[in-house]
From TrEMBL:
It comes from Flavobacterium piscinae. Keywords: ATP-binding, Membrane, Nucleotide-binding, Transmembrane, Transmembrane helix. The chain crosses the membrane at residues 20-44, 89-108, 180-209, 281-298. The lineage of its organism: Bacteria, Pseudomonadati, Bacteroidota, Flavobacteriia, Flavobacteriales. Residues 20-344 form the ABC transmembrane type-1 domain. It is found in: Cell membrane. Its main location: membrane. This is ABC transporter ATP-binding protein. One of its GO terms (molecular function) is ATP binding. The keyword Nucleotidyltransferase does not apply.
């Protein structure tokens, strides 16, 4: 059994009732599909005045003879109706039987499809939920290596492909094989000799079709990978549209997109050609067999005679037999088509499980501590960290007492922002430890660790929603009064109150309707509303102009009162009031002290201040 097939099975368990009913209704569909053709025999017998005369009412003797009992009982009524009311009444009876069998066949098909629909949509929903839980749960580091567009494609397109293609397997193992089985059973009962031809045809046809479909799974995976890349290009282009336009780079991105579309066009054409070949090929091979059956069976009806002069095969039985033989073609075609679809579904399932099975390296321990308060200090002890092979921090130690503001300064690449990533456990240290109140943060539950911290980053990450809903992320059950109070602390209420709908104003995609300074003040308001004891400010003012910076700086100072703050700063003017300034270079501390102490040392900090004063 294919590995991905085994992985899908747990998702079927909640829908086992639907699976069972689908199988039952498919078996009944297959049975009545066969009976609908067998019912043609008595109708043709009545038409051609060939009906077997049964005068005595048959008696039921045992379950093993139910077929001959049913046949005798039907012919008894046909004989009785013909003698009492004329042949047209007998014809009406058999026509009604034909209609009922076809009606039941289609009713069972409808019920089977309904249960399959509930199964497919249920598994689609569960897989998407599982995928979203996983992509939310995975560490930030995963997305620095993967294309976000490809992850989106796996969640949306590939999961859908699993739904549309993969569940053809139920038809592959139940509906169509059972139809073939019942049909062949009926054909053997009518004429064993003729049925031998069908037995020769099925394996030959299956072999040829499987040869064509062999490379389909690999090609389907290729197409799905390319689709993921295509969505990535669209996502990146839209995300950086200002840069694309300002650098006149439209042609570059269009060429990139066109190349991907062209590759996808070639792969999907190749897959489509093989898919399209399956149906006509199986039908043509079926017609070849039908032609042989017509010749051979026709001779049995017209030429070959038994000892008493009657034909070797009755005309009515031969016509019904031909109907049954053609009835095999439809499921044979469906099986070849479904086997192709399953290959596409398996390729999509592989891409889905690639994400679902990624091991999350940053998780809670089984006995994780729930911590609700910050009482003493943050202690960073001899930590070392590297992104893949690049060492960013080495033997870094720092003590941050409660209520103090510690600023981290240094040139780009000195490891300042990495400290913020490690404190919030977006990444884990390679060596050493980070402790809060003498407890290693790896021993704390992630939820309680992050509840103690508020993070304001250089890029104001806002969502396409109202100001109110963006700020409520800090505290889901906050009142409007609390939101307005937080906006005031963040120095943001003065512009929010003038907006058309106040805090209910939609700010557009990524807050595109606001200025940089306004967006940053909303980010600060969100952190203020959360009201955590530890605040991490990662270059919160570096992307702002001077006037916006003043507003944001006031907001930051308001927020940092009576709090433990770690300020990662590029602009040194913003951290002169810090209790301790830590100067970093290449992942190590080179100086630390207050603003005045460091200036007096006339070392690296002094040089940085000098350089910025001339900017």
């Amino acid at each position: 059994m294919d590995e991905n097939l085994k992985k899908i099975i747990p998702f079927l368990k909640p829908y086992k009732t639907n699976v069972i009913w689908n199988i039952i209704f498919n078996i009944l569909y297959a049975l009545f599909s066969t009976l609908s053709f067998i019912a043609l025999i008595p109708m043709l017998d009545v038409l051609f005045k060939d009906a077997e005369k049964v005068v005595a009412k048959p008696k039921f003797t045992s379950i093993w003879e139910i077929t001959s009992f049913g046949k005798d009982y039907l012919y008894f009524y046909i004989t009785k109706l013909t003698e009492e009311n004329g042949a047209q009444y007998a014809l009406l009876l058999v026509v009604c039987i034909v209609i009922i069998t076809f009606l039941l066949k289609n009713l069972f098909n409808y019920l089977a499809l309904n249960h399959l629909l509930l199964l497919k949509n249920g598994v689609l929903r569960d897989l998407r939920n599982k995928m979203f839980d996983k992509i939310i749960d995975l560490p930030v580091s995963y997305y620095s290596e993967k294309r976000k567009g490809d992850v989106m494609a796996r969640m949306l397109n590939d999961v859908n492909e699993v739904k549309n293609s993969f569940f053809s397997i139920l038809e592959l193992v139940v509906k169509e094989p059972m139809t073939i089985l019942f049909t062949i059973g009926a054909m053997v009962a009518i004429s064993f000799k003729l049925t031998l031809f069908v037995f020769i045809f099925i394996p030959i046809s299956g072999f040829i079709i499987s040869k064509i479909g062999k490379s389909l799974k690999a090609k389907s995976k290729k197409a799905q990978d390319e689709n993921g890349y295509l969505i990535s290009i669209v996502e990146e282009t839209l995300g950086g549209l200002k840069v694309v336009k300002s650098y006149n780079a439209e042609r570059t991105f269009t060429a990139k997109f066109n190349d991907s579309i062209q590759r996808l066009y070639r792969i999907t054409n190749s897959i489509g050609k093989k898919n399209n070949l399956s149906s006509p090929l199986s039908e043509f091979m079926g017609i070849l067999v039908i032609a042989i059956l017509l010749w051979y069976g026709g001779n049995m009806v017209l030429v070959d005679k038994l000892a008493d002069g009657t034909p070797l095969l009755e005309g009515s039985k031969f016509l019904a037999y031909m109907g049954l033989a053609y009835n095999i073609l439809t499921p044979a075609k469906a099986i070849s088509k479904a086997s192709y679809q399953v290959k596409t579904g398996l390729a999509a399932a592989e891409r889905v499980f690639d994400v679902l099975e990624v091991e999350n390296t940053i998780t809670d321990q089984s006995n994780a501590i729930q911590k609700s308060s910050f009482d003493d200090s943050i202690s960073i002890e001899n930590i070392s960290f590297k992104y893949e092979d690049e060492i960013v921090l080495k033997n870094f130690s720092l003590q941050i007492p409660k209520g103090k503001t510690v600023a981290l300064v240094g040139q780009s690449g000195s490891g300042k922002s990495t400290i913020a990533n490690l404190l919030t456990r977006f990444y884990d240290v390679n060596e050493g430890s980070i402790k809060i109140d003498n407890t290693d943060i790896k021993d704390l539950s992630m939820n309680s660790l992050r509840s103690l911290m508020g993070l304001v980053t250089q890029d104001s990450i806002l969502f396409n929603d109202t100001i109110k809903n963006n700020i409520l992320l800090g505290k889901q059950n906050a009142t409007d009064e609390e939101i307005i109070a937080a906006l005031k602390v963040a120095n943001a209420y003065e512009f929010v109150k003038d907006l058309p709908n106040g805090i209910d104003t939609n700010i557009g995609d990524s807050g595109g309707k606001l200025s940089g300074g306004q967006k940053q003040r909303l980010s600060i308001a969100r952190a203020v509303l959360k009201n955590p004891p530890i605040m991490i400010l990662d270059e919160a003012t570096s992307a702002l102009d001077t006037e916006s910076e003043k507003f944001v700086q006031i907001a930051l100072e308001n927020m940092m009162q009576n709090r433990t703050s770690i300020v990662i700063a590029h602009r040194l003017s913003t951290i002169q009031k810090a209790d301790v300034i830590v100067v970093m270079q290449k992942g190590e501390i080179v100086e630390q002290g207050t603003h005045e102490e460091l200036l007096a040392k006339n070392g690296m900090y002094s040089k940085l201040v000098m350089m910025q004063s001339f900017e």
